[in-house]
Design goal:
Blueprint (H helix, E strand, L loop, with lengths): L1 E8 L14 E8 L6 E9 L2 H5 L6 E2 L3 E2 L6 E2 L10 E10 L11 E4 L13 E2 L6 E3 L2 E3 L3 E9 L3 E11 L1 E6 L2 E2 L15 E8 L7 E10 L13 E10 L4 E5 L5 E4 L2 E5 L3 E5 L21 E2 L18 E4 L6 E6 L3 E5 L4 E21 L4 E7 L1 E2 L5 E2 L11 E4 L3 E6 L6 E9 L12 E7 L6 E5 L2 H16 L18 H14 L3 H13 L31 H13 L2 H20 L34 H22 L3 H22 E2 L2 E2 L4 H9 L5 H17 L11 H10 L3 H9 L6 H6 L22 E2 L15 E2 L14 H9 L2 E3 L6 E4 L9 E8 L2 E10 L2 E8 L4 E7 L3 E5 L6 E7 L2 E6 L2 E8 H11 L1
Parallel strand pairs: 16-24, 22-31, 38-39, 41-45
Antiparallel strand pairs: 1-2, 2-6, 3-4, 3-5, 3-7, 7-8, 9-23, 10-11, 12-17, 12-20, 13-16, 13-18, 14-15, 14-17, 18-19, 21-22, 25-34, 26-27, 27-32, 27-33, 27-34, 28-31, 28-33, 29-30, 35-42, 36-37, 40-41, 42-43, 43-44, 44-49, 45-48, 46-49, 47-48
The protein binds beta-D-glucopyranose.
Beta-D-glucopyranose binds next to helix 3.
């Protein structure tokens, strides 16, 4: 049985309104037979389902192509025009002589490719008076509507929608789609996205109405005094082939609605007494509504350091938008008598909002909702760590009646606890009164992991919780305080983990466009993207590790998804960046008088510290990351066959490595052998063979003397466990992972974290209230938080991805799942087995299909089961006395091709395999090879 599933176009299932003229298609092959490889494919793309049904690829018939390529096959047919609908299917042949049936019929549609396709005008309702909170201006969401008549039989209707701000469109009383925060976050002066919706089902015969609600969203935060705008073009195609276009323009009507304000940081206020019933229905009387303002009014660019076009371009949104991934029901409700309020524990820290249900309301009754990561010790809500956003509050003013249900449209935040006040009716709320709506992007989870250690299982769950909360239009640093920015460093430290957890390819591709948009004229990438000037002076050099994301993340997308196109697309920007970075150095070392973040948030670091006893030294980080980035540029140049550049970058890398060794290394190893310094030097391959050994011993000594506690910063932490395992110190890497004393990952989890914290000790439940407060951003600090401080609220988030880098090590070393070729076309399975874990199941949905590695220890015996997807091959490492006992398929082509050290290595094709071996001798051998 051979069949195809998970067919994707431009990395998404059935995308509408794309603007890539040669979109790429991909599929996953399922086969019952082992050792299956694709030998040929045929793709048909048709302009109608009927043509496709008759096997007529009138747009493209690839013919039978002898090839094993099953991901990223570019469309190569007739030129596609705006609005074109494309239906496609594929069949393949395999190396066993089987032919698959045709796949399911999939589709994509083209968006509006030409500027002239757009007839809609930008409309807005410029408000003289708007809500103001502290110094932040808060605009009331505005309502826009138009009525229209349909007098012929509708064949299809498509809405193209955009905004400077956030929009929700409605047609005939129904909200269009279920996306949030559309059209997505960009540097709005450069590009604005639009979304495409099939709204055929929304239309009535005869009278119809379309409406849009507009709020400021990211466009008004921070406020630049610019005017929010809405854009909509509804195209109705009739069965007779004619077309009617309903577009936003000056003939629409505009009004404010029940919402007093909606702001990312401060929440949303809705006075339901002013609800406009039926505003999105045809019969609504809008005679009192105003005419909207029209046209874009972008202010002059505040930044001049990089190129900003005269007018932003409108582009198709290239990923799946933010959606609800899960509803959370509170696990506990407690009463705060002194505030007449209730605290709901939602059980986990997620990003989103809550829906409330309140019975027997009085008109004008005000419900307030406040949110927090944690509770104070007295059970009240802790909000100080939200900084300016501590004033965040959703406010609902009741209409009055038997039951009211409300949820905000235009606000979200990370939180675990919700405080509800104003529930003044005799019967207070109960656990059913509040439902948490969790939002994220990249909904399709790729990873299953479980093992015999509950703390590690909880840690793994916290990684996914953290990923989801910080995958909302940008890989954000945190999800709650007055920041929530696409800090490039944080994105990079977590992206290896995130790429395993979910299909992040479209999300990261979209975000990288923002990274490239932020490249300045000298070639520097910014520290955060999309550029959010006003929030942060973002036009300068984002500095290594942070700005290096512009080179290192495209490389990751190539490694995880086999995405060569992203390398090609960003290569010129990557080259300009490398040249810029090197031009800032003297003798291949940085100027140490300037500021650099260094190994941010190590246990002993503070703003401006240059050295660290645990983390990596500030300018060592600078040099090490610069070298790593340049070496990655060598690899990228090689993949793209830019041989001359590869040689040039390699020469630069050698100079950087030599300078690093001159400054930081002597014959005994690292001159300052901190955990972070050793880990970075080892993991980035900056040492020669001799010093490598010594640095590995130094690293081990550092950890041994600290009882396997980890105190590195966000930059060097991703390297620590890899530095151990690559040096052969497997049990020691496990010692760190399994540690539950402060500081460690285990400590976070044991102290109640359901998402990763910003600091190793964001909460210190065992310390007394009187413990001193440490503020990493206070220039007067002279030492880090160490072991006896509480972290000040200033920099303390309860959902912060950076330390979540450990997920990458877990999958690659406990699961043993690694790629030998980009996209996991060739896989290496090499788990490190540790009795303390008992068993581990790791299952990863790669671009080719699911890879499973499962091992268990019974007495002194180990067993391993492996599953390799079709159209890939693998090397499976088994200890030298291990033997393959069974294979579920007799055709399994598995041959032992190498016995090296303690391993037998088996080359396999796809299939399911089982192994067993004596564990003691395995461990014995690991010891011997050290
Ligand atoms: C963020 C960090 C980020 C940093 C830059 C902070 O405010 O939350 O995680 O990397 O700024 O140092």
């Amino acid at each position: 049985m051979l069949y195809l599933h998970q067919l994707r176009c431009e990395y998404r299932i059935n995308p509408l309104g794309i603007d890539i003229k040669n979109p790429r298609v991909s599929w996953i092959i399922k086969s019952r037979m082992a050792g299956t490889l694709q030998t040929a494919f045929r793709v048909l793309v048709a302009s109608s389902p009927e043509n496709l049904h008759n096997d007529k690829g009138d747009l493209w018939d690839s013919g039978t192509v002898e090839s094993d390529q099953s991901i990223d096959i570019p469309y190569n047919g007739k030129e596609l025009a705006s609005r074109e609908k494309c239906y496609w299917k594929v069949k393949i042949r395999d190396n066993h002589g089987n032919e698959s049936p045709w796949s399911d019929v999939m589709q994509w549609s083209m968006g509006l490719l030409e500027k002239k396709d757009w007839q809609a005008e930008w409309i807005g309702l410029d408000q003289e008076e708007f809500g103001q909170f502290r110094n932040a201006k808060m605009y009331a969401p505005c309502y826009f509507r138009n009525a229209f008549h349909v007098d012929r039989k509708v064949a299809s209707a498509t809405l193209y929608a955009s905004a400077l701000g956030w929009y929700q469109f409605h047609i005939n009383g129904r909200r269009v789609g279920n996306d949030y925060f559309t059209p997505g976050w960009t540097d709005f002066r450069i590009r604005i996205y639009y979304n495409t919706y099939d709204v055929t089902e929304y239309l009535n015969d005869g009278d119809n109405a379309i409406g849009g609600i507009l709020s400021g969203g990211w466009y008004h935060w921070p406020d630049r005094g610019e005017k929010a705008r809405l854009l909509g073009q509804l195209e109705v195609t009739f069965q007779d082939g004619s077309r009617q276009i309903i577009r936003t323009d000056g003939s629409w009507k505009a009004s404010t609605g029940p919402e007093k304000y909606a702001h990312i940081l401060f929440g949303e206020s809705c006075d339901m007494r002013h609800n406009i019933n039926g505003w999105d229905n045809p019969a609504f009387d809008d005679s009192t509504w105003e005419a909207p303002q029209t046209g874009l009014q972008l202010r002059e660019a505040l930044q001049t350091k990089y190129h900003v076009p005269a007018e932003p371009v409108l582009e198709a949104y290239p990923a799946d938008p933010v959606r609800c991934v899960k509803e959370h029901h509170p696990v506990k409700m407690s009463t705060l008598t002194q505030r007449e309020a209730y605290i709901f524990d939602m059980g986990t820290n997620y990003a989103g909002f809550v829906r409330i249900k309140i019975k027997n309301t009085l008109p004008g009754q005000i419900i307030h909702l406040r949110f927090g990561d944690w509770l104070n010790r007295d059970g009240t809500l802790y909000t100080e760590n939200l900084r300016l956003a501590r004033h965040m509050m959703d406010e609902y003013i009741c209409q009055g009646g038997e039951e009211e249900i409300w949820e905000p449209r235009f606000s979200f935040r990370g939180h675990r606890y919700v405080e509800v006040s104003g529930w003044s009716n005799a019967k207070g709320p109960d656990l059913q009164s509040v439902v948490g709506i969790e939002l994220t992007q990249s909904l399709s989870s790729l990873m299953k992991f479980s093992c015999g250690n509950e703390t590690i299982n909880k840690l793994f769950a916290a990684l996914e919780q953290t990923r989801r909360a910080n995958t909302i239009e940008a890989p954000t640093d945190c999800s709650q305080r007055d920041e929530r920015q696409g800090w490039c460093g944080d994105a990079l430290f977590f992206s290896n983990t995130a790429n395993f957890l979910a299909d992040m390819q479209p999300f990261y591709r979209k975000w990288l466009t923002g990274v490239m948009d932020g490249q300045n004229r000298e070639g520097g990438f910014a520290r955060l993207a999309p550029s959010n000037h006003g929030y942060y002076a973002n036009d300068g050099d984002g500095l290594p590790a942070w700005a290096d994301t512009g080179v290192l993340l495209p490389w990751q997308l190539y490694q995880y998804y086999g995405d060569t196109e992203i390398l090609k697309k960003f290569y010129p920007a990557i080259c300009r960046y490398i040249h810029f970075r090197i031009s800032t150095l003297q003798d291949y070392l940085p100027d140490e008088t300037g500021f650099f973040y260094g190994d941010w948030n190590s246990i002993d670091s503070f703003w401006g510290s240059k050295t660290s006893e645990w983390g990596a030294d500030t300018f060592l980080v600078y040099s090490a990351y610069t070298a790593k980035t340049v070496r990655t540029a060598v690899d990228i140049a090689k993949v793209l066959r830019m041989e001359k550049d590869a040689v040039e970058f390699n020469n630069i890398f050698n100079e950087l490595k030599a300078a690093f060794n001159r400054k930081y290394v002597n014959k005994n190893g690292m001159i300052r052998p901190t955990q972070g310094n050793c880990a970075m030097a080892l993991s980035f391959g900056l040492l020669d063979k001799e010093t490598e050994k010594k640095a590995a011993e130094q690293l081990m000594e550092e950890f041994r003397k600290n009882n396997w506690k980890i105190g590195t910063g966000t930059v060097s932490t991703p390297e620590v466990l890899f530095a151990f395992s690559r040096s052969g110190y497997i049990a020691e890497a496990y010692n760190i992972l399994l540690n539950e004393s402060f500081p460690s990952w285990g400590y976070m989890i044991k102290s109640g974290a359901t998402a990763i914290w910003e600091h190793w000790g964001s909460r210190r439940p065992e310390l007394p209230d009187s413990a001193p407060l440490f503020n990493p951003c206070d220039p007067n600090e002279t030492h880090g938080p160490g072991f006896d401080c509480q972290i000040s609220p200033w920099m303390n988030s309860g959902n912060h991805p950076a330390f979540g880098s450990v997920g990458d090590w877990i999958v690659r070393n406990i699961g043993g799942i690694n790629q030998l070729e980009p996209g996991f076309k060739k896989i290496m399975i090499k788990p490190f087995i540790d009795k303390r874990l008992g068993h581990a199941l790791t299952s990863y949905g790669s671009a080719y299909g699911t890879i499973v590695s499962e091992w268990m220890v019974e007495g002194n015996k180990a067993k391993m089961k492996v599953e390799i997807p079709a159209n890939t091959s693998a090397q499976i490492y088994v200890s030298s006395n291990g033997k393959c006992t069974t294979s579920t398929s007799s055709e399994a082509k598995m041959k032992e091709f190498m016995a090296s050290g303690q391993y037998h290595v088996f080359e396999t094709g796809s299939g399911k395999f089982e192994f067993d071996w004596q564990l003691d001798s395995f461990e014995e051998k690991i010891k011997r090879t050290k």
